[in-house]
Amino acid sequence: MHVFDEAIALSHAGGDRFDGATHPAWANMVGPFGGITAAQLLQSVLLHPQRLGDPVALTVNFCAAVADGPFTIEAVPARTNRSTQHWTLRMLQGQAVVMTGSAMTALRRDTFGVTEHAMPSVLPPSQVAVAPVGDRPEWVGRYEMRPLEGGVPAQWDGSDQGHSRARLWMRDGALRPLDYPSLAAIADLFFPRLWSRRATRVPLGTVTMTVYFLADAQQIARVGNGFLLGQAQGQRFHMGYLDQTAQLWSEAGDLLATTHQLVYYKE
Amino acid sequence: MHVFDEAIALSHAGGDRFDGATHPAWANMVGPFGGITAAQLLQSVLLHPQRLGDPVALTVNFCAAVADGPFTIEAVPARTNRSTQHWTLRMLQGQAVVMTGSAMTALRRDTFGVTEHAMPSVLPPSQVAVAPVGDRPEWVGRYEMRPLEGGVPAQWDGSDQGHSRARLWMRDGALRPLDYPSLAAIADLFFPRLWSRRATRVPLGTVTMTVYFLADAQQIARVGNGFLLGQAQGQRFHMGYLDQTAQLWSEAGDLLATTHQLVYYKE
Question: Which overall architecture, per CATH, does domain A3-108+125-265 show?
Fold first, then answer.
């Protein structure tokens, strides 16, 4: 069993409740990697017997540090329409709410389509070096990352890098075909934009993340074990909060998802 | 009383419940303008006696058409930390859930700050003509809009406009100082990007919207009755769903908010 599937394995506890646990392979500095928590929340929707259609949107709110150990997810189908369904999500540890969120699933059909945000022209993954994991948290080792720009600063010298844009090729380190949960996890994979821009580590953490899934299940399945090109940038850093906007393309140039997050920082 | 304040007026029904009603001045083609519904949900948080801090993020999910008439909002402080608070939101009409959502409020403090997405260089509002309301829905008349590009097509001839980017100056038609609820409403003000790009009206509707508030209360108050520059663009249109990413700057060039939405379309 792939270590990602181990991490998102949930047991249906009846009704809208699913039990799971954090997984040591996905540990961050404190608690688990936010992306794996997002994937677990999405997985509860995918496992729900009343689910209609595939994910089109996911919002997860990081209310408190998730403690290492068991958790319960509540995935409530708050509203079911003919071709769409809205989900309300909570993750509980004991009586404490550690995550809230919402998701939307839908039956998709053929329509007019066009991509406006084209994949930038960059070197192919085979010509970009793999970033060493070094002393980064355990979860970083789960991915193969090939940074083009905006990765871990070469020197932590506090110099202003002028912008926070990151571009990198990335995929699961142990190969696994892409699906909605892994795409949700990868949406949170970017190195902190503030650390990158300032070449300085300050305390920070994602407080909310939204993912829009812009590809249908067939297009995601076609990615297989291929790389994704990720691009992320902060738009404004102000009084303790910054927003990050990001895009994830397949190697073939399909824009699979766009994602946004708000990040708290301390100084 | 300003017609915006009339629309967001809620009465505290005890606990986490607030009663309100749709307002005819904000009618859309079916039900109310989504922006005013977003503002009503945010207002329930602002009125809640347990609120801590100012809004930093808001996500609203348009689960079903809001019917003209009364509604109840539930605003639950799901998690309160030392300087942050996470809210779970629902709007009910009778027993039906018509909106879900989440919000985050926080105490902000001085930190490092920088804007990466600078306001584009455009003509000032005084040199841009006001768009006529024409046969557009009632709520459009509540705003003064001065489009620079990507507004209502001059001809509905089905010609591809090449891109969906919109830029416009905008403010309340009857002047009112900007605050968090009016900023949330304005985040949903853009003319549909799909209609603009294709010069064709097809059935569509926003299904989820997220707003990140990147300015503190003082900076928002300084805007007063001034204009905001809004920019919005779809990144991908695919199988019935498109994402719109947008920025809202003050005339002084402060990036007050970034906002994203997913829009359903039929053909």
Answer: Beta Barrel (2.40)
The reported pLDDT for the residue numbered B120 is: 98
Task: Output b/e per residue, B234-245; b: 16+ Cβ within 10 A.
Answer: bbbbbbbbbbbb
CATH class of B3-107+125-265: mainly beta
Beta strands B204-213; B228-238: pairing state = unpaired
**Structure confidence at residue B180 (pLDDT):** 98
Residues of A in contact with B98 (CB under 8 A): 79
Tokens of B113: 């700050």
B65 beta partners: none
Q: What is the pTM of this model?
A: 0.98
Residues of A in contact with B215 (CB under 8 A): 238
ipTM for this model: 0.98
Any chain B CB within 8 A of the CB of A225? no
Diameter of chain B measured on Cα atoms: 56
Residue A223 makes CB contacts below 8 A (sequence gap 6+) with A177, A178, A250, A251, A252, A254, A256
Q: How many other CB atoms are there within 10 angstroms of residue B72's CB atom?
A: 16
